Amino acid sequence: MDLGRLFGLNKEQLIALDPKEVDFFINDEGIVYMAKTLDAYWQYDYAAAKKGKVGYHALLKSLRHSDGFFVSKIMLQHPNILEIMAMQLFYRYRYHQLMWPKWVAGIPEGAKKLGEKVAELMGVEFAEMEKVDGKIKIISQIPPHSTLLLVEDFCTKGTGFKEAVAEIKNQQPDVVILPYELVVLNRGGLAGIMVENVGQFLIVSSAYYPVDDWAPEACPLCKMGSIPIKPKETDENWNLITGSQK
User: In 82-146, which ranges are E strands?
Assistant: First the structure.
């Protein structure tokens, strides 16, 4: 298996792919190709909009509007794809020779299992985090001054990451959170995230694939008559946004 052959695989072939065959870096286009082939990535269809099918568009966690959206739950539901993505994160972290953590945590809900697999590959402890009543909580008790690396499925404006860091520091202030965000897809175009009272975090991603987003009042899709919805809020919303321009 090589990168060229990967681009030729269809959905069924990707789901059957042996992770041991993917012992190379998958580039940005390859990660996005896999996401789209597995129906985990949506892109607004401007051509359909010109024909009157304005449909829906994405309302992000930051409350900005966007013409592209990635749902990691769909992609990572397949155990082999989860392992492949974890391996890609592991390869990149090792390549950059960054400080090795003692603990790894995946930001819930999208990256919880991903973080567990990255911890396994790194040979370090896994710190469990959960979302309780809409708020992120760290369940594992990490020893004071231990280093913790956070893993996320995707990054746009860093809203969820900032929340996770703030909650960890609030619950276990002596934990040393390493200044990196290890993420599958960086779609927001950021190089780093500044967390107030904590510091700057470098984004280390498997794929860099920026998409457009706008403040609600400046959204060109709204002006065309398209309706913003939160794609991950319900399965119905995902079906609406992916099928509204067909």
Answer: 103-106, 125-126, 129-132, 135-138
Strand partners, 42: 69
| 52 Cβ neighbours under 8 A, 6+ residues apart | none
- What's residue 22's pLDDT? 96
What residue ranges do the domains of the chain occupy?
Answer: 3-72+213-243, 89-208
CATH number for the domain running over 89-208 = 3.40.50.2020
pLDDT at 32: 94
Give 60's Cβ-side CA count (13 Å radius): 24
SS3 60: coil
Lookup result for tokens 């992770």 = 19
Reported confidence tier of residue 188, pLDDT bands at 50, 70, 90? confident
Which two tokens mark 28? 């940005």
Q: Assess whether pLDDT exceeds 90 at residue 156.
A: no
Instruction: Return the axis-axis angle of helices 112-122 and 79-95, rounded to nearest 10°.
Output: 50
10-42 pLDDT per residue, tens:
999 999 999 999 999 999 999 999 999 999 999
Angle between helix axes 79-95 and 28-37 (nearest 10 degrees) is 170
Helix (H) or strand (E) run with residue 239 in it: helix 235-243
Q: How far apart are CA 206 and CA 115, in angstroms?
A: 14
pTM, two decimals, is: 0.90
C-alpha to C-alpha distance for 71 and 241, rounded to whole angstroms: 12
3-state class (DSSP) for residue 192: strand
Beta bridge partners of 123: none
Q: How many CB atoms lie within 10 A of CB 99?
A: 11
Please report, as a single letter, which amino acid is at residue 150.
L
Say how far apart CA 35 and CA 118 lie, in whole Å.
19
